[in-house]
# Entry
Amino acid sequence: MPLPILSLGRRTTAVLVLALLAVSAQATAQGPASTASATLTREAAQIKKLIEQKFDGVRVSSVVKSPYGSLYEVMFDDQLVYTDAKVSYVLVGNLYDTATKKNMTDAKMRELSRVDFDSLPLELAMKKVKGNGSRRLAVFSDADCPFCARLETELKNIDNVTIYTFLYPIDQLHPDAARKSRMIWCAPDKLKAWDAFFASGALPQNNGDCDTPLAATRDLGQKLKVNATPTMVFADGSVIPGALPAQRLEAEIANGELQAARLAAAKKK
# Structure
């Protein structure tokens, strides 16, 4: 559930940030280094308790000491917030590194939402190999989603990748997408039918009454908290919703492969 905090003006938000950082700096100056680990453990437990007490219905999944002074990153549901050790203030929003202009909140959320690509049930997806197919990309896609159509256009400019497309119709937005997805899956050539549909709107000549993985992909998407289409999963397990332009898409695929290799190497150590 969203954290029940009132929306604040820019000036008020700035005051809160300064106050939070002041508390953070004060906490940094306290406590001997030899007891830092034990203190962090106690503080994390206390922060979890205080957050859940102060905000009814919130269930904290993790509390991690951030690299920014003495701020703590608190995660619950799909939300990441920042607080001090006493939960005197809670900051909701994006935290930027002023030196690199990097959105640190977005980077952390991508890290926390990472999934194990190798654990994906790829047999439930349509598989398209482009070029040498050496790189991997999984996409949750809705047949009637205009942003999915845009992504399909951008993917035409990407080579040397194997794309696994999970049919993921969102009934609330596109009530006819499930029927179309069943017809596409039941076609003799699923990929050809998928491409033809996005090219011209043509559907294969069948009743869509074969066995399909739609129920299983719905459960998978809910488990992975996929709530928008298209949603992409890259080789390193990072998850990004939305239709990216080809240049950005190429960069994300390349970075996903690089990070996946680093993660695999780290596991071997």
About this structure: The helical segments are 10-28, 36-54, 104-112, 146-155, 177-185, 190-200, 214-223, 246-268. Confidence is low (pLDDT under 50) at residues 1-36. The two ends are 39 Å apart (CA to CA).
